Amino acid sequence: MFTIEQIETAHDKIQSGADFPDYIKEIKALGVQSFETWVKDSHTEYFGKNDFRAESKPKYTELTIADETDKDTFIRQLKSHQKGETDYMKFCEDCATTGIEKWIVDLAAHTCIYYDKAGNEILREEIPH
Question: Are 7 and 46 in contact (CB under 8 A)?
Answer without folding.
Answer: yes
